[in-house]
Amino acid sequence: MQIQEIDGFMAKCEAKGVERDVSLFMLQHEPVDLGDFVVVHVGYAIQKITQAEAQSAWEIYDEMLAAEAEMEMELAPPDHA
Fold first, then answer.
1. Is the domain covering 2-75 a CATH 2.30.30.140 domain?
2. Domain residue extents for the chain
3. What is the pTM of this model?
């Protein structure tokens, strides 16, 4: 997610149109700024990453979702309407 606002150890982050309030507590010994990208797990930023790493992660995630949807279509029982 990309950091949009910072207020102490809390940040408003955004990814793909979704906004979340995220704790920066686990990154307190690493400088974070507006526009930085972070990996978020259960509401905590756990790692700072580059924009290229963030883009790559989203591309892989999109591929996984597409493969899952394709598999569900293949496994769905035929429509006998």
1. yes
2. 2-75
3. 0.80
